[in-house]
Design goal:
218 residues; mainly alpha; Endonuclease III, domain 1; 13 helices; 63% helix
């Protein structure tokens, strides 16, 4: 899988993810909002929170649920996500905030995130790598689609085994966190713009080594 990372990095360059610079909690909020949502809509929802000065755990915890839902409406499923954000914010405050959470070991911090209502493995790993600079890989639908088309996986592997296989190749030596950060962002770039459900193989930097691309050319 390392060759995929190197090829994509050469083709697309560094992605500079995660968008925004508001710290770990803002990353966590964005990770919840991006569940089943396009990033452009998440940006609109984050702007709604920022306008109300609600991008802190205390502010989200104390917001009226209906008003919070209205602020994040562009992200979709806004009432569900408002509840998830308030669960996250309450847990964040009770844990002692950014500094206390940053002091936790990665496995412990991941377990803490996964115990919060509405935080699944993909969301938790987004927060870990982008919010807390931990060397973990985020497995998403783009990852499964691209790796399956390349013949690297079957496509139905358990989340944890797929995450571990990528980390085994990329989370070695210096710069592990940055590589894993970049790899996920590069996969998103490829999956969003090129390796779509109907792929644009002619524009793909991986096409020469992709069995699916060769089938499309027949």
């Amino acid at each position: 899988m390392y060759w995929v990372y190197e090829r994509l990095l050469t083709a697309f360059g560094p992605q500079g993810w995660w968008p925004g610079d508001g710290g770990a909690f803002e990353v966590a909020v964005g990770a919840v909002l991006t569940q089943n949502a396009a990033w452009r809509n998440v940006e609109r929802a984050l702007a709604g929170l920022d306008e109300r000065q609600w991008l802190s755990p205390q502010a989200i915890r104390d917001a009226e649920p209906d008003e919070l839902g209205a602020a994040i409406r562009p992200s979709g499923y806004f009432n569900v996500k408002a509840g998830r954000l308030q669960a996250l914010a309450t847990a964040w405050v009770e844990a002692g905030g950014d500094a206390a959470l940053a002091a936790l070991a990665t496995d412990e911090l991941r377990r803490w995130l996964l115990a919060i209502r509405g935080i699944g493995r993909e969301t938790a790993d987004d927060v870990l790598v982008y919010g807390f600079d931990r060397p973990v890989f985020v497995v998403d639908a783009y990852t499964r689609r691209i790796f399956a088309r390349l013949g690297l996986i079957q496509g139905d592997e358990p989340y944890e085994s797929l995450r571990a296989s990528v980390e085994a190749e990329l989370a070695i030596g210096d710069g592990a966190t940055q590589r894993l950060n970049e790899f996920h962002a590069l996969i998103v770039a490829l999956g969003k713009d090129v390796c779509r459900p109907r792929p644009d193989c002619a524009s793909c930097p991986l096409a020469s080594d992709c069995p699916t691309s060769r089938q499309e050319a027949v």
